[in-house]
Amino acid sequence: MTKIAILDDYQKVALDMADWSALSGADITVFDRHIEDEDALAAALQPFDVVAIMRERTAFPRSLFARLPALKLLVTTGMKNAAVDMDAARDHGVVVSGTASSGHATAELSFLMILALARRLPDQIRTMAAGGWQGGLGRDLRGARLGLLGLGRLGREMATIGAAFGMDVVAWSQNLTPEAAVAGGARYAEKAELFETADFVSVHLRLSERTRGIVGRDDIARMKPDACLINTSRGGLVDNDALVGALNEGRIAGAALDVYEREPLPADDPLRSVPGLLLTPHIGYVTRESYDVFYPETVEAIRAWLDGAPIRVLA
């Protein structure tokens, strides 16, 4: 009997989002709580032939693969997962398969954050809940400048939405050219210009050694006093100490984060009490429509592996 573990089912919906009966005879165990400690995780996963993971919720470094001799298949949502050591998977004879993902859900959340910051919704909601009325002054998006770090799939989605709101959209990344920026729905701006002139800076880059900390102290210092920063990509892209300092000192108007260096974010993390900082628990892709792709394709990948013909193989 094939033993399958489903990790990090925070919403407790995995078994309802796909027809797992296609894996007839399989023994399926769902873990709805994150297991952070590697010793505890290795102990919990010892019996399983197959592990299904939600992209980058649980890391699979080489040290973990070495402790799971029974593991033969790892299925991750998405076709990229920086938290999985693919070389280690190959070395330990573990097949890694992926699923499709749309990506637009994260862009929608990013723009929701822009709207919330522009209209000061967190403050207004708290005021209403406390029995008060209007407080603070919001701003229009029409005519404001949206600065995009990265103009890939998500960046282009953001450019389209920004243009629909009448925003002036500029973009920068390390390899972006003026011609590619125009093709993606934006105008190219040098990095310094983007940070100096944008009203909203939204980060849409992949995390790598080259991009880690790419939004640094000097970049945040260039931002206008009424500007806001949004990061729904990866926590390591932004120098959060510099961001917190700017918010605490009132040097920028606000920021919003959906991603963190450590996830889940500890309950006592100082980020939770920073003024002007809107936090969400990495829900960029957490929608019904995304899960309608993730889990059925996870089942499909497991079925294909059981039939001896793995699909969407990443390692």
End-to-end CA span: 24 Å
Radius of gyration, taken over Cα atoms and rounded to an integer in Å: 21 Å
Helix/strand/pairing category = alpha/beta
- The best one-word shape is globular
CATH top level label of the largest domain: Alpha Beta
Helix content: 25-40%
Average pLDDT level: 97
Residue windows where pLDDT falls under 50 for at least 5 positions: none
User: Quaternary arrangement of the chains shown?
Assistant: single chain
Helix tally?
11
Order of helices and strands: EEHEHEHEHHEHEHEHEHEHEEH
Largest sheet: 7 strands, parallel
- Architecture of the largest domain, according to CATH? 3-Layer(aba) Sandwich
Describe what this molecule looks like in 3D:
There is one protein chain. By secondary structure, this protein is an alpha/beta fold. The chain is globular, with a radius of gyration of 21 Å. The protein contains eleven helices and twelve strands. It has a seven-stranded parallel β-sheet with strand order 8-7-6-9-10-11-12, with helices on both faces. It has two domains: 118 residues, NAD(P)-binding Rossmann-like Domain (Rossmann fold); 176 residues, Rossmann fold (3-Layer(aba) Sandwich), CATH 3.40.50.
Quick structural summary:
The chain has helices spanning 38-45, 62-65, 86-91, 104-118, 121-129, 153-164, 178-183, 191-197, 217-222, 240-248, 288-306, and strands at residues 3-6, 27-30, 50-53, 73-76, 95-97, 145-149, 168-172, 187-188, 200-203, 228-231, 254-257, 277-279. With 315 residues, the chain is an alpha/beta fold. It folds into two domains: 3-101 and 288-306, 3-Layer(aba) Sandwich (Rossmann fold); 104-279, Rossmann fold, CATH 3.40.50.
